[in-house]
């Protein structure tokens, strides 16, 4: 079970404004490779822009305080943003969390087609995502 930093998710009320800021002020590029296919009918229908420094993506997501309720999950990744890691074995990572008593929300593929995602809180309440891409 290997984890690699995949993306940081920043939440906003205005995706276009934030996209312009990250591209114009920070000099990030619009991400065009390996973009997730958003599942807009499964609980989160917000707009998302994708920028990158060439190595790590930043997802600029429209804030939705109801996404957790809409999907029946405790952890809401688009209320305040999150940091995301990709794994090669999500089931092993879930067992790892369970062995340590860390509760998580299993979003499955509710937000992104082909990505199985879980979300959990660190001890200070920051949201962490771990996901596995189908076939990876």
From TrEMBL:
Stored Gene3D superfamilies: 2,3-Dihydroxybiphenyl 1,2-Dioxygenase, domain 1
VOC domain: residues covered: 4-133
UniProt cross-references to InterPro entries, sorted A to Z: Glyas_Bleomycin-R_OHBP_Dase (IPR029068), Glyas_Fos-R_dOase_dom (IPR004360), GlyoxalaseI/FosfomycinResist (IPR050383), VOC_core (IPR037523)
Domain of life where this protein originates: Bacteria
Pfam family, one: Glyoxalase
Name this protein carries in UniProt: Glyoxalase
Species per Swiss-Prot/TrEMBL record: Seohaeicola zhoushanensis
